[in-house]
Design goal:
43% of the residues lie in helices and 14% in strands. With 356 residues, the protein is α/β, with parallel strands linked by helices.
């Protein structure tokens, strides 16, 4: 099987020669792996480490020039402002500007300079896809709750659901409408060349949901369902990322049509691998599962290999339906030997069982 075939077979719950693997990492880890592999091309790192790797592509931005805010600040086409923040373990761009934080009315929402789907060069997508013939291609990122948080600010976006429901419904609809139009153009341009899209979000905290299921159903589910239905019309597999303890939403998400569930933070309550395997194996493809809060940064290579084996035996117990990956971005404080251990560990169910 080639890389693409292995990824898609896992998603489709078909037989595998070995479990596919994927990688998410911060820029510092990316640079370290490029140096380790002696290359400047990321795809060569994937080849060297035999990482199947879902390749995420997007149409280039060609809209109005973005303001130059200097070296420490940057602004995107949504008007969201980010500040460069150095931490002991690496650099992140943290959001500091929320374009609709001062909005008071529906008129304020409509007066906001919404990004225009015309600002992207969709014609570039076929050539970008052609660069990765043997890879599974992902195009698109619908994240309605997350962008609600990013436009309004997390605290206000959560309070508004209870205090300003009409205002919230209108704002969420405007976000969803942009994503629908943008992705219609993406999917049309890359039809037959792509395989996966993200309809994703961040409803979970470390201990539970950020909002109630009732609010999820009222404010977000209809728009998420519309995005999933759009993807299905183009024959795409739906990848759903949702950090933290989201167990109460998983049955709903599967019912709505997601195909892949990421990142499987199994240390969070309700997300235990045994529970997920027992209740959802065969119904959704698991993606992730190698803990990057404790295991990857602080354990030994042998402990990393053991966790890989446990994940394969639990999340991949049917022999398919699992893509092994870190449960979110590998952080800069992760030892190189632990990263290599994750990708050099046995990848078949038989070998994993034998190693435990």
């Amino acid at each position: 099987m080639n890389y693409r075939e292995r990824i898609l077979a896992a998603i489709n719950h078909q037989p595998l020669d070995r479990f596919p693997v994927d990688i998410w990492c911060v820029e510092e880890v990316r640079e370290r792996l490029l140096d380790y592999c002696g290359t400047q091309e990321w795809v060569h790192v994937l080849d060297a480490l035999e990482i199947d790797g879902i390749i995420s592509l997007r149409p280039p931005y060609q809209g109005p020039a973005l303001p130059d805010l200097g070296e420490e600040l940057r602004q995107d086409e949504w008007g969201m402002v980010y500040k460069r923040q150095e931490y002991p373990t690496g650099v992140y761009w943290e959001q500091v500007g929320y374009p609709l934080a001062q909005a008071k009315s529906i008129a304020d929402i409509d007066a906001y300079s919404w990004p225009d789907p015309d600002w992207y060069d969709y014609s570039a997508l076929p050539d970008l896809c052609a660069l990765y013939e043997n890879r599974a291609i992902e195009i698109g990122y619908t994240a309605i709750f997350y962008y609600h948080n990013k436009l309004r600010g997390l605290e206000l976006s959560l309070m508004d659901l209870a205090l300003r429901p009409k205002f919230s419904h209108h704002l969420i609809r405007r976000i969803a409408d942009f994503f629908l139009a943008y992705h219609e153009r993406c999917f049309t341009a890359a039809q037959g060349l792509m395989h996966i899209t993200q309809v994703t979000d961040d409803f979970g905290s470390q201990k539970g949901l950020l909002i109630s299921k009732e609010m999820f159903n009222e404010f977000y589910r209809p728009w998420i369902q519309r995005a999933i239905d759009q993807a299905k019309r183009y024959g795409l597999k739906v990848f759903h990322h949702d950090d933290g303890a989201i167990y109460p939403l998983i049955p709903d998400l599967i019912e709505m049509g997601i195909d892949v569930l990421n990142p499987i933070q199994w240390r969070c309550p309700g997300m235990e691998r045994e529970t997920l395997s027992r209740e959802f194996a065969g119904k959704v493809c698991f993606h992730g599962g190698v803990d990057n809060q404790y295991t990857l940064p602080f354990s030994s290579p042998d402990q990393v290999r053991q966790e890989v084996a446990e994940n394969i035996c639990l999340l991949g117990r049917t022999g398919t339906g699992y893509i092994l990956a870190p449960c979110h971005n590998i952080q800069a404080n992760t030892p190189l030997e632990n990263i290599l251990a994750m990708y050099q560990a046995p990848r078949t169910l038989e070998e994993a069982r034998q190693s435990l």
